[in-house]
């Protein structure tokens, strides 16, 4: 794990928010024909194609955020499963004996060009932040070849990770 990840994870968990990690590395996050891998501290690592992601309950969100180079207001509609539903299928290895153990966890999403964004578990936890972050498989009604995250509550597009290859679950 790159040295920056533990510090970014700690910062996100301490602030109750998320930190974008846009570090370029030589590590490959290649995926097979659009498949996204769910790895890390999970009971059932997954490799999910767009077709498999389509079998989850689908959600649709309309979003507006600042993004692109130069930054301009973007307006899109994304559809796909909730990131939380995908992660639950993988089975995070929370410790039952630790009160609110999930609040010390994070999810590192890596996409094209090794672009990364970190999401704290508390953000997506229904009892805490309850943010409906999508693992989108459609954008503006058109199918995507690889999933991308859609974070409707964000004002900037930094956590809209395109071409998602890996979703790594981290815990204490």
Write up this protein.
This protein is an alpha+beta fold and 172 residues long. It has a single domain (4-170), classed as Sulfite Oxidase, Chain A, domain 2, CATH 3.90.420.10. Helices cover 16% and strands 34% of the residues. It is built from four helices and ten strands. The chain has helices at residues 4-15, 50-53, 83-90, 121-124, and strands spanning 20-21, 36-40, 46-48, 59-67, 72-80, 106-110, 116-120, 134-139, 142-150, 166-170. The chain has a six-stranded mixed β-sheet with strand order 1-7-6-10-2-3, sandwiched between helices. It is globular, with a radius of gyration of 15 Å. 36% of the residues are buried. Residues 10-16 and 18-31 have low confidence and may be disordered.
Structural class: alpha+beta
Strand elements, count = 10
Q: What would you call the shape?
A: globular
- CATH class identity: Alpha Beta
Q: Distance between termini?
A: 14 Å
The proportion of strand residues reads 25-35%
């Amino acid at each position: 794990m790159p040295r920056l990840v533990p510090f970014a994870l700690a910062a996100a968990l301490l602030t109750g928010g998320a930190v974008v990690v846009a570090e370029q590395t030589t590590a490959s996050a290649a995926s097979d024909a659009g498949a996204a891998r769910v790895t890390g501290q999970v009971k059932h690592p997954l490799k999910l194609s767009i077709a498999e992601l389509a079998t989850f309950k689908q959600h649709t969100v309309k979003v507006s955020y600042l993004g692109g180079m130069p930054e301009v207001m973007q307006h899109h509609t994304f559809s796909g499963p909730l990131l939380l539903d995908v992660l639950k299928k993988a089975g995070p290895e929370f410790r039952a004996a630790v009160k609110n153990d999930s609040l010390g966890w994070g999810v590192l999403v890596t996409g094209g060009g090794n672009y990364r964004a970190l999401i704290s578990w508390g953000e997506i936890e229904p009892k805490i932040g309850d943010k409906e972050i999508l693992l989108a498989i459609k954008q503006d009604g058109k199918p995507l070849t690889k999933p991308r995250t859609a974070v409707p509550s964000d004002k900037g597009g930094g956590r809209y990770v395109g071409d998602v290859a890996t979703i790594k679950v981290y815990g204490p």
